[in-house]
């Protein structure tokens, strides 16, 4: 098992060295880049909005219910909702969710190209298939992920505001005051920086599993599953490391 893991890490590094080379045709690369930004990034906006909206509302409700001590001010609900969204959900949790959507999409698409011999045809034509297929996906998703992170933060706070507006659990004035209290701008940048690393993990790991698929449709499905699981584990590991480095 250890030997296979070391072999996989070495193979992944060699794959990345093949991916990160200057494109043979910049015009085609830019076309693919725009396409991947739209497919992997823009198409993920509805999912991010819906999930963040409901999670923000749930956090606000749970904090209101559980803060029962008279020593804790009412505005702490808004403050806690903001901190949870900024520090963890809009970066780590959102990327874990996107690993299932984007990661499986990348792995299955590249895996299908492999089993249908499209990648072999590119290599026969003299193209760097890894660079041509994978690099636009990695660059495109990494460029767009900060937008998804900011949208998630905003919609999470809107979700909490809807609870304050349409229920009597907390007043809107107290909620807004809590959002504004003790605000640290670095926490926003901290979340964005983390998503850049997570986006790279999702796309590169998923592309790796899809690129080296052998077999047929069944193996493509298995590769997608392994891509999502591996990406999720690596995201959690990176989260621990980045939190220690960025917040110490």
The major β-sheet equals: none
List the domain count as a whole number. Answer: 1
N-to-C terminal Cα separation, in Å? Answer: 35 Å
The succession of helices and strands, N to C, reads HHHHHHHHH
Low-confidence stretches are: none
Assign the structural class, choosing from mainly alpha, mainly beta, alpha/beta, alpha+beta, or little secondary structure. Answer: mainly alpha
Helical content band: over 70%
Mean pLDDT: 91
Relative strand content: under 5%
The strand count comes to: 0
Q: What would you report as the Rg, rounded to the nearest angstrom?
A: 21 Å
Question: How would you describe this structure to a colleague?
Answer:
The chain starts with a helix and ends with a helix. It has one domain. It has helices spanning 2-19, 26-41, 45-66, 76-115, 118-124, 129-166, 172-180, 185-211, 217-247. α1 (2-19) packs across α6 (129-166), α6 crosses α7 (172-180) and α8 packs antiparallel against α9. The radius of gyration is 21 Å and the shape is elongated. It contains 9 helices and no strands. With 248 residues, it is mainly α. The mean pLDDT is 91.
Structure in a nutshell:
The protein is mainly α and 248 residues long.
